[in-house]
Amino acid sequence: MDNCPKEYKRGFKRFLGCKVDLSQKPMIPRLETEFWLKKAIKTINQEKKRVVCLDIFAGSGCIGIAVLKNCSELCQRMDFVDIVKDFLKQIKINLDINKISPGKYKIIHSDIFKSIKGELALHRTEGSGAGYDYIFANPPYVGLDKRHLVQESVLDWEPMIAIFGGEDGLFYIRKFLKDARKHLKRGGKIYLEFDHMRKKETEELLRQLKYKNYKFHKDQFGKWRWVVIRQF
Ligand SMILES: C[S@@+](CC[C@H](N)C(=O)[O-])C[C@H]1O[C@@H](n2cnc3c(N)ncnc32)[C@H](O)[C@@H]1O
Predict the structure, then answer these.
(1) Whole-model pTM?
(2) Which InterPro entries does the record match to this protein (predicted)?
(3) pLDDT, position 117
């Protein structure tokens, strides 16, 4: 098919100074993700605090690898989670290409948080409890009800498990938010990407689940795209 994305044809994409191999056909990293992650990286570097992070819904691993590379002194460890085994292989390929030392990461096969319970105790620090300092999440968030708005090349080539989040697009966001705070240290932060058409519903979900400190942000195209949630 001639609508194959150029990134798959070329086999890789550049993302915040990293080379992201796409041989296992994970979702192609997006410019919107690069936009908010750049800000997260700046914050980590400004805070000058050692951090332990989770890249959940990791796909190619682009988010976690960019943090490891751009915050190399401060990011002590990154856990990567995906449900698709080929993407776990992809993450390892990308960690190796970007020369990340094996002591700095763990790759976990899990349905969202189901299999990462054992990790929590490892990340206990005096005063702020167990869990992660940062959780980065770019879940599948397009609603099946918006399928008609999705580009044909995405439907033809990209993995559907990375794109669609149930009928209303909130299936994974709902599941993620239900458990996320248990995995966050006191003072920790969640960066969550969402569909610009579901800001109202995402906010409603945060309220229902009694998250109190959060701030919504727009992407470089002026669309609501990401929210930072803090745990005090
Ligand atoms: C939107 S992609 C994000 C990929 C990458 N983080 C990025 O920003 O380019 C979502 C990823 O979530 C994974 N995924 C889907 N369902 C999952 C689940 N139940 N548990 C863990 N990962 C899941 C998909 O395999 C896919 O790699």
Answers:
(1) 0.96
(2) DNA_methylase_N6_adenine_CS (IPR002052), HemK-like (IPR004556), N5-glutamine_MTase (IPR050320), SAM-dependent_MTases_sf (IPR029063)
(3) 73
